[in-house]
Amino acid sequence: MLVEAISSEADQDLSPSCYDIAVVALVGGPQQRECVEWLRSHRHASGLWGAPETLCWNDTYISTYAASVALRASGHQDEADAAHTALKTIDTSLPVSETMTFGGFVDFLDRLSRDRSWPVPEHPQTVHRLIVEERAKWNRMKAWPEFYNPELSIAGFCAERAYGDDDIDLARLVDTFQTDNGAISHSPGASAGVLLEHERRGTRTRTGTGTGTGTGTDKLAGLLRYVRTRRPETLGYLDHLPHFVTAWSAMFAAEVGPIPPGLAHATAAMLAEYDGGLASPIGPSTVPGDPDTTACVLLAAHAAGLPLPEHPGLEQLYDPDKGCYRTFMFERDGSLSTNIHMAGLLHLTGRHRRRDEVLEWLHHQLLDLGVQNCKWHISPTYTLGEAARVLAPIDTPTSRNIRERAVARLLELQSDDGGWGTEQSTVEETAYAALGLAAAPETSSGPALPRAQEYLARTTPGLEPLWIGKTFYCLRPLVPVLHQVALTRIQQVTAGPSRSSAGR
After folding, report:
1. What are the residues whose beta carbons fall under 8 Å from the beta carbon of 158, sequence distance 6 or more?
2. Are the CB atoms for 47 and 215 separated by under 8 Å?
3. 206: pLDDT confidence band, cut at 50, 70 and 90?
4. How far apart are CA 331 and CA 325, in angstroms?
């Protein structure tokens, strides 16, 4: 059953993050040796770490740089030097999606290396530009009155950037962004970075909390305990993403009929935590909510037959100048998938004027500029599949143009093996494409869906990292759900008109 596929790996939602493993390895403790050995055993034959550079050189670069720093800190000088040299071989001219706050994390590793008199790479111009851009954005964030507000600010999520920054009130940062499990915003890298900055400052510990240079003894002990209990096999860029898993799973499961009871119960529990603001992919936490998660939570709730609450919090991230929703404050460019899902929600709730503004922005991005990749997922198939699927009920000229373009492009991208994939076919990407095509009546009688069905039927789901956060990651519980839903949906569509609308 779908809900069993979701719950079976609920304690390890995300694939391991090389960058976070390396940063956690910089903190003294029992986790150090295990993390370093993981890094040593996961170096590619090229001498690099992370994703293939042709897929996302940002991930390759930050993973390799962090690994070199961790190896140097642990006494593996020759391996660290080799990793440092390997950075120069990465082709940073390739047009790929940027990992989240990439330049800021490179800047953090630079400051750490300088403090310890370790070599600092001569970064290519492309990397240097991103460092400068992220540094300017960080300075704007620090001047923002809501910098320490976890409902709006991502300062906790990227708190390793506080390293070497004396403007940051470290005690207030910990007080504000520490979570129940001791982490800073459920982020291993951020948590380790805050500990490293605490060490750099030589901050005396004190009892209690509040602003100032000291950090509460209990809070610091909880933070240290959290970092020291991390294990590389389950160390993603965040601890877990329960609302992300539930919302997306329910949204896709509804394509084939009523949501299974267990998933419907999880969706109701997720909705009960929603307060009308911005829903976080982690749930109530110190990671701010965003319009993409909020839209998908509410679309999932509707699919489960639940009444939709008011959601005024979404409007604080609408950009009237561009006509799109930002995912986070200070975001440089809008996200395609965020605005696709927002268009679906705006249509559902009858806000047609705002829906049409968002559709115009999507039309400009997808058709006029030819942008196909969403900033949160490496594969154009995710963007195109969601455009075809989510916008299917919206019968306006702009929506039709977007859908027609998305369907045509999906048909062009189908591989000889019947699947879809950025480098090679994957179950996840094929499922997105199949669900998008299944929403388009003109494709139900063609060969694309039967070929996709054959590919999905013979292929065991893999767990390829395709999502983009601080680093590349796989949302593990979602992949088997997509596999099952896509197979079922294709069967419904290809069975004929009597069943083709069963899930919609």
Report:
1. 100, 101, 104, 105, 187, 190, 470
2. no
3. very low
4. 10
3-state secondary structure of 318: strand
Mean pLDDT of 388-394: 98
User: Which amino acid, residue 73?
Assistant: A
Residue type, 220: L
By residue count, the chain amounts to 504
pLDDT of residue 217: 80
* Cα(503)–Cα(491) distance, integer angstroms: 11
Query: Is the Cβ–Cβ distance between 130 and 98 less than 8 Å?
Result: yes
Please state, in angstroms and rounded to a whole number, the distance separating the CA atoms of residues 173 and 265. 35
Single-letter amino acid code for the residue at 29: G
Specify which residues 24 forms β-bridges with.
none
Q: pTM of the full predicted structure?
A: 0.93
Render pLDDT for 254-309 as a digit per residue (tens, 0 to 9).
999 999 999 999 999 999 999 888 999 998 899 999 999 999 999 999 999 999 99
CB 252 within 8 A of CB 341: no
Is 74 a residue whose pLDDT tops 80? Answer: yes
In DSSP terms, 187 is beta-bridged to 184
CB 156 within 8 A of CB 179: no
Which two three-digit tokens encode residue 275?
């307060």
Q: What pLDDT shows up at residue 503?
A: 56
Residues 167-171 have a mean pLDDT of: 96
Closest CA to 273 of 239, 236, 300: 300
Question: Would you give the end-to-end CA distance of the chain in angstroms?
Answer: 20
Cα 48 to Cα 76: distance, rounded to the nearest angstrom: 16
Phi, psi of 159 (to 5 degrees): -70, -15
Residue type, 84: H
- Triad 103, 104, 105: Cα angle to 5°: 95
- Residues sharing a CB contact under 8 Å with residue 220, sequence separation 6 or more, in sequence order: 174, 198, 205
C-alpha radius of gyration, the chain, whole number = 23
Q: Residues 297, 271: contact at Cβ < 8 Å?
A: yes
Per the CB < 8 A criterion, the answer to whether 461 and 480 are in contact is yes
Instruction: Please report the beta strands in 191-289, taking only residues with DSSP state E, as ranges in sequence order.
Output: 205-206, 215-216
Nearest CA to 277 among 269, 288, 264?
Answer: 288
> Cα separation of 375 and 7, whole Å?
27
